[in-house]
Amino acid sequence: MKAEKNKYSLWFLAWPIFVELLLQLLLGAVDTLMVSRVSDDAVAVVGLANQIFQAVMILFMTVASGAGILIAQKIGAKQQESARTVGIMAVTISGLIGAILSVILYVEAVPLARLFQLEERLIPLAHTYISIVGSGMVLTALTATLSTAIRNTGNTKGPMIIAIGMNVIHVMLNYAWINGAFGFPQLGLTGVAISTLLSRLLATCLLLYMFVSVFERRIRWRDLGVFNRKLFSEIIRIGWPLGVNMSSWVLSQLAIYSFLATMGAAALAARTYMNTLESICFMLGYSIALSAQIQIAHLFGSGQTQAAYKAGYRGTWIGLGLVMCNSILLLIIGKSFLGFFSSDKAIIELALSCLVLTAVLQPGRMVNMGFGNALNAIGDTRFNMVISLFSMWGVAAGLSYVLGLHYGLGLTGIYIAMMCDEYLRGILVAIRWRRKKYLRSAEGRTNSIDPLGATEGKVRNVHSA
């Protein structure tokens, strides 16, 4: 019992997640840094392409996110067979969706780039990057789903170790293909895209190897066809509001990127560089929020609602303290950091003009992420969906257009709009968590029959608030 408790302690979960996310961030930062050696135009293309990839990822992340929360809840409720089945279904369904998206992105790379008003001179670069990286979307689907499933069993170290190997391979291949080193041809942006594809392939293979042994009963090849309708409906019940929430964020960000595209390649490049800087600042807080979500889901599944409630506050306040310290650090190192990426004074000055706003934005984002993830962990996903639809489009995207384009504030106006969005949603989710509406509906414990036909423990009968 003590070992189980330690396995789901906040710091035990958080530090491997932090290392994994940091290494994933370094993957993106290395991409950005190395692509900047090709050209700032290439950076603008990669920035827009990554927004497109995030948009299509929603289709399988809906399944992966819902399954991850449900796995932690089922393990907390001692329903190991249900957790295993949920994991298997998530991987097979996400892999199928990813394969379909791979074909679409490969075939429709140019129309997608033009859809978001990319300058015509950048279209050839966009076609190269989107078609190559996009064709591997099935690998992205599998790595994301496998990592989520493995982490929510309490094993956060495994994905971290694989992320280390993925980053090492990616950096080496990037260097080789951009510079023509080690006998490799000099391929520029094409080489970066191929490097991304190969490193994800390696990560997928290693995660699959780990996944088959992560539950109490080993997964066999014949199990990959398993499907349980009742468990799948539980995944969708939790996951579809998460999918709408994620799609709302990504599509609103794409709308904002389309506004930036009309301002020129310099604005796109500046936003891409700042996004990397923001991610470094927020990474530790984000890892705390993710680990707190796993911990809260496990406590909630085991019927410990008061402990789950307190864990929501503990995770958010710890993350907030860390993010505020990092925001101060961001102000100190921001100018030097941007100098590593670009020598274009106009782009650097444009990015630096938003540095203070970026630092002020981060605490609001942490409160939003901390309490928002806590609500997701107990299945209260619809509330997040509703406020996201209103705030991300009405405030983030709508105000970005008004301030950035209509009033001509450019990138500064867009950052003001994003700051208003994060703080508004942060306040709303904090109030929702404090009122404990969803938790109260679960405090009357009832016996629950496992969807596979075996009683594996008592769980709470939870209904939508």
Describe the structure.
With 465 residues, this protein is mainly α. It has one domain (2-443). Helix content is 80%, strand content 1%. The protein contains 17 helices and two strands. It has helices spanning 2-7, 10-36, 40-76, 80-107, 109-115, 123-134, 137-151, 157-179, 189-211, 229-263, 265-301, 305-341, 345-352, 355-377, 381-406, 410-435, 437-440; strands at residues 445-447, 458-460. The chain has a two-stranded antiparallel sheet. The protein is globular. Mean pLDDT is 84; it is low at 445-465. This is FMN/FAD exporter YeeO. The chain crosses the membrane at residues 52-73, 85-106, 126-146, 158-178, 190-212, 254-274, 280-300, 312-334, 346-362, 383-403, 409-431. It is a multi-pass membrane protein.
Explain briefly what this protein structure is.
The chain has 465 residues and is mainly α. The protein is 80% helix and 1% strand.
Question: Could you outline the blueprint of secondary structure elements for this entry?
Answer:
Layout: H1 2-7, H2 10-36, H3 40-76, H4 80-107, H5 109-115, H6 123-134, H7 137-151, H8 157-179, H9 189-211, H10 229-263, H11 265-301, H12 305-341, H13 345-352, H14 355-377, H15 381-406, H16 410-435, H17 437-440, E1 445-447, E2 458-460
Helix pairs in contact: 2-8, 2-11, 3-4, 3-6, 3-7, 3-10, 3-11, 4-6, 4-7, 5-6, 6-9, 7-9, 8-9, 10-11, 10-15, 11-12, 11-13, 11-14, 12-14, 14-16, 15-16
